[in-house]
Design brief:
Layout: H1 3-28, H2 39-52, H3 58-66, H4 68-95, H5 100-111, H6 122-167, H7 173-182, H8 189-209, H9 212-215, H10 225-242, H11 249-268, H12 287-300, H13 308-319, H14 323-332
Helix pairs in contact: 1-4, 2-3, 2-4, 4-5, 4-6, 5-6, 6-8, 6-10, 7-10, 7-12, 8-11, 10-11, 10-13, 11-14
Amino acid sequence: MTALRLVVLLVGIAVLVADAYSVLTVLIVPRAASSRLTYPMVLSRSLFRKISQMSHTFATQDRILALSEPVALITLLATWLLMAVLGFTLVSWGISTQTFESAFSEAGSSVFTLGFAFAHGEGSKIVDFVAAGTGMILVALQIAYLPTLYAAYNRRETLVTLLESRAGSPAWGPELLIRHQLVGTVDNLAGLFADWERWAADVAESHSTYPSLLYLRSPRTKNSWIVSLMAVMDAAALLLAIDPEGAPIEGRMCIRMGFTCLRDIAQATRIPYDDDPLPDDPIQLPEAQFADARTRLLAAGFTSSRSEADAWAHFRGWRVNYESVGYAVASKFNAPPAMWTGPRRLFRGESIEPTRPVDRRPGGEAAGPGDIPRDHVPEPRPDLVREQAPGSPGPQDSDGPGS
């Protein structure tokens, strides 16, 4: 064995070790990890993001982005297989006297179990057996990986889809509360907050372990897991701010688990965030938007035991825990530009309002007990739809005690 072949052999072993490490950390180890071999996935996502920017409508952009992660997963499998072929090519060439072309044919034939090329030396035969086993293991692990991903995806999307009839599409916190008041189901909010507390715990574990889930978009264009989570937390924060005595304790627990989920995801994806914000710190949501939402809630029949200024101070004290990290996560993963979810560079600043179903009854029948005529509740004001962009002038936040 010449010195050159020895060096090539060592390089081939290093390539195979790096390939095995990437597979191990991404598919088997139950925690977030990064590998240089996942860079092709990053490039694939960036390419789809740039292509989506060529479209001028959100629906078209969403359809393009929906293909991003499936293609990225195929790119990752192809990267692992190509690295395996390269590594075994270098090893085969390093331990034998054959040409590089013959070593490449032998490695490719073994990894993909084609069998059209085989070695004659004892050492090369062992390499062929290992290469064949590696190829089958890579494909088998990827096949097993996809059901794990989509099982977690289905668990996530079940509650997101259920929320559509409760909070609109895209979801919005005030709309969630108003719809429950309109149909007389405010007492069900405690159970809803408890369900979303468990949902947030599940998403925190699964999505920080398997980051590909973060890029898989909802089947419906306007739905999004991050938008839905922020809507539920906003609903809980509104209740705790305007009427703390009447708000269910489950709302407090939902907010805490919700911002814990967002911070776990931010940590796994290297998004910077403040892990201990002060309740008096400013938030990006303008006070005027909170005041408009409070007016709508009172018109729907909610009561407020606090003045508007006190309610705003306490709402800000809750929202400061999740607003900045929620905005960052929504922007990074291109969530639909819903109300109260922050600015979007990709979607050119547009903001989608939720629409309320028309109250139609046979024969013009009046609203029944527990129902509130929908025309008594003001619709979202177009001039208050968009959030204040970071660094832009806006209404000053009032000082006051936090929660």
